[in-house]
Amino acid sequence: MTCNCCTIDSYICNICDYECDYFLNKKNVVGVGLGYKIKCGFETSQKCIMVFVSQKVPSNSLNSNDIIPDVYKGIVTDVLESGCFKTQSLTKKVRPTMGGYSIGSTTVGEASTLGCLVTDGKYKYILTSNHGIVKDEFAIGTKVLQPAIPDGGKVPQDVVGTISKFIPVKNTTFFHEPKNVVDCAAVIVLQESLVSPLIYGINTPPLGVANGELKSTVHKVGRTTEKTLGKVLSINAVMELEDQGKKNIYKKQIVTTEMCSDGDSGSILLNQGNYAIGLVVGGSDTYTICNTMSNVLTALNLKLVTR
């Protein structure tokens, strides 16, 4: 493949989609994506293959096979130290509850974030991350609380719904490295009076779905860090995340500046027009990873509730 048969963006995206293992198999590499090269702390206008590493080390301390080339197939690379990515306060009970608040299941003793409301045209569902509420493949029907158990949620008085749909996450093994696209789940609401389509602090539901754009300003509202602003650094990224000691690989991700902490997974990433572009899945001390929203909705066969 050569650059003259497609745009530079699609050329880099194809490298990330189909040749990511070339980078991920190198020591300390935890992700790759399309981005703008950063020089002296400032973004340039040069598109590059952005390579995320858990730790930068001198090239003379690496095996030759682990050295990241300055140029790969004609495209400049840019190495960013991100640390390791891990799956990640609006903690009080509120009715009707809304996007940004704490939720959790009775089987996973952690808190996640209520992202927003979605629908199949008949029923309303809460959209959130899979890893925050799904214990195993038998999770359908599991009760979901608002707030989560670590935030004081109790059964039965705080139950707002049950797990109805989720996309299983495929773990990396010694012999197989499957690529996930989404980490998401839908909770069917027991009563519509228990929930609001609004996102806390924004006072509107997501107005629709949009694509993530490089360098654009974005925001999210999550259970732990509440409303935070960030910038899109990379799109169509392939990233490695740790979840309770297991490693999972996700493709077609959006990478932003650091916006989240533990408990913020499930938050909705919004552009400045309040259109949903992503679902927060995890992060490190310096960057945040989000599923692409259009992929989330397609996988669950649901649509946003926009009013």
Automatic annotation (TrEMBL):
Domain Nal1 N-terminal: 28-74
Pfam families associated with the record: NAL1_N (PF25608)
Domain of life where this protein originates: Bacteria
InterPro entries xrefs: Nal1_N, Peptidase_S1_PA, Peptidase_S1_PA_chymotrypsin
Protein name: Nal1 N-terminal domain-containing protein
